[in-house]
Write a structure and sequence with these properties.
Layout: H1 2-13, H2 19-29, H3 37-74, H4 76-90, H5 98-106, H6 112-122, H7 126-153, H8 156-172, H9 182-185
Helix pairs in contact: 1-2, 2-3, 3-4, 3-6, 3-7, 4-6, 5-7, 5-8, 6-7
């Protein structure tokens, strides 16, 4: 795995003008190679700097989301498995806001495509899905590219503090209202 990542790193570094294209393609194929988003964004910061690395990562993460959208249309069984995971994680009662989805994408322990599935289910068409996927890809691309080394080098206590901070942000940006259907509210209680 390390050797494959090292070869990819050298190939992109020596590609000249094609390096950004190969980097975006690495984002798309990273899921097949089981490489975490964090590592690819770190690589982007190292190779291209914060600004260009972030831009290329945003485009790469959006491309991954579009590939996922296509796969979900072709393979409904994949959608069923991720829907079961989503139900287990969100318990089916939460409506996530855009800032919450951005924060979820920052959390390395939340499956990348869980947010993509939620976006598919909450958007009307591929154009709207692409727009929201682009927006939701901005925080992880910028944070992991700019501060990736710092996050990666944090001791365990720093990592725990960062995870707690992200969890608090997630709760802060939740929707403040709850919709209860008429028949649920007035249903007879079973004693």
């Amino acid at each position: 795995m390390e050797e494959l990542l090292e070869r990819s790193f050298l190939f992109i570094e020596q590609s000249g003008w094609f390096a950004p294209l190969f980097f975006v393609l690495l984002h798309v194929f990273r899921q097949v190679l089981f490489i975490p988003v964090l590592l690819i964004c770190l690589l982007g910061g190292y190779l291209f700097g914060t600004l260009y690395g972030s831009l290329y990562s945003i485009f790469g993460l959006t491309a991954v989301s579009l590939v996922f959208y296509g796969l979900i249309q072709i393979l409904p069984s994949m959608k069923d498995k991720l829907t079961a995971l989503k139900q287990r994680f969100l318990k089916g009662k939460h409506q996530l806001t855009l800032p919450q989805m951005m924060i979820m994408r920052l959390m390395p322990f939340i499956h990348f495509h869980l947010v993509s599935l939620y976006l598919i289910e909450s958007t009307k068409n591929v154009k709207e899905y692409t727009k929201y996927s682009f927006l939701v890809s901005i925080p992880p691309a910028v944070v992991y590219t700019a501060f990736g080394d710092m996050i990666h080098e944090l001791p365990l206590a720093g990592t725990v503090v960062f995870a707690i901070f992200l969890s608090l942000l997630f709760l802060f940006f939740r929707k403040k209202r709850t919709n209860i259907r008429w028949d649920e509210f007035f249903s007879p209680k079973n004693s």
